[in-house]
Amino acid sequence: MKRIQPDRSTESLEEKIQRVIKEEITIVSYDSSWPEAFLKEKKHLLSSLPQDLLGRIEHFGSTAVPGLSAKPVVDILVEVNSLDEAKKRIAPILEAEGYDYFWRPTSGDDVPPFYAWFIKRHRSTMVRTHHIHMVENHFTEHWDRLLFRDALIENPSLAAEYEELKVRLAAGSRYDRVAYTLAKTEFITRVTDQARKKERPPGE
Questions:
Q1: What is the assigned CATH class of domain 16-197?
Q2: Range of weakest confidence among 50-59, 100-109, 169-178
Q3: I need a surface site. Which of 59, 70, 163, 193 has the fewest CB within 10 A?
Q4: What is the pTM for the complete model shown?
């Protein structure tokens, strides 16, 4: 039986935000298909979006760490040379393909710097499959997420500690993605700061 999808054409921004942040958080065992899912989506983005706007495309987050349990959503960091142009020329393309689109603050309340964020969903189940974060080259806070990724890959005990934290937080905030994300911040910041110091020792 074919699943009938809800009509979201008249959905307000506030309604869309509330729908998205209340979706269930599920942590699952590592899936070896996640790297391939990233490569497939990267190929799709490169083939369907304006080439003159695109730069680096990176797989980050827990699904990029072999063996780490995670929400089954592939996080992708996309470099664009102009977010203003991305709003005009990229967002309409991906929205037409069914991606949810948000003009989102990097941290805190509704204040700059903003970036373009997209949610891709499975066509029949509407379950999230990818998060796409589009930023410019100077958005250091976003690119530092690659330092966090690499730190977990290099240190399995650190990855195990992060996994335990996520499982515990997901159990307590299963339908509150904002609370879940905020609760991870201290750990992520600490590990990222350590990785940044290791990469760029003082005085260099």
A1: alpha beta
A2: 100-109
A3: 193
A4: 0.87
